[in-house]
What we know:
Order of helices and strands: HHEEEHEEEEHEHEHEHHEHEH
Radius of gyration: 27 Å
Number of strands: 12
Strand content: 15-25%
Oligomer: single chain
Distance between the termini: 36 Å
Structural class: alpha/beta
Shape: elongated
Number of domains: 3
Amino acid sequence: MKHKGRAAAAFRRILVAALTIAIGLALVLWGLGLVLGRGAGRPGFGIVGFLLVGFILFSAYFFRDPDAKVPPGEGLIVAPAHGKVDVIDEIEEPHFIGGRARRISMFLSVFDVHVQQAPVAGRVALVRHTPGQFLNALKLESAALNENVVIGFETSEPACGRVAIKLITGIGESLLGRLMIYDALAMSYRTIDIRKDPQAPAITGLVDYEAFCGAVSEPPVAADASITPGELRDLMDSGAAIALIDVREPVEWEINRICGAVLIPQSVLQSSEGMAALAPGAIPVLYCKTGVRSAQALAALHRAGFANAVHLRGGIVAWAAQLEPDMAMY
């Protein structure tokens, strides 16, 4: 799926604007020639013409819209952009995916095709524009702070599930093929060019980063041990005996909270004193900001014998997005 013709329409608008400016400059130069004498504005005509032709050629190249080559097969997710992959990791995405998601970040330079295409077959279920800054794309915080548009797809193939594209504005150059070194003592940066080892084996997948770094992760949370914001609201309205527990820190609790919750920070809840404070007979329902800390605390409760404990998938961020959009966030 693609908006065929949008790029050409944008190019035509820019072309009209450029021609209008060029004609205005030509009239100014012509007027200077009348005032100052013949030949006074002729060098300016040449410069304006050269810049106009160069700008038109670059704009035509920038707004090109080639047909994408889609490989045959089922269950495929095709790259929506023509840039370079610079980051592959996993993140929490509470708004549309509703939990852990694989993120593939692509950097587009001014020489790449900027027409975006749908990565899967299906329907558009979400379009959300978020105003923001225009930080350099090299800065990690640009992904969270820059102006962006999120497009969510409900795919027609069950194997693909939900897929979202986040288009982020920004300027800068990708670190692909370079290593950035930060000197905290001198407060300076420098980069080193690196090249691929031709003898290195091909990379076909991600490594187990937790095993690679020696980190020990909590066991995964079972599907029936997490609830959505809507399910939590229904549980609260039903009058069931629940203990809604906020496992964040006090400074976060002061900013926002779910009505009816009590604050027991994760570090306290995972101690014997914290578990002893749980109301007997009530279903413990844990939540944090995005669901990461509550999942860790939930694993500790399950090990301690609280088999009926659950946690809020997506945390208070998902709760606010779905049920309390006016809630203060941080």
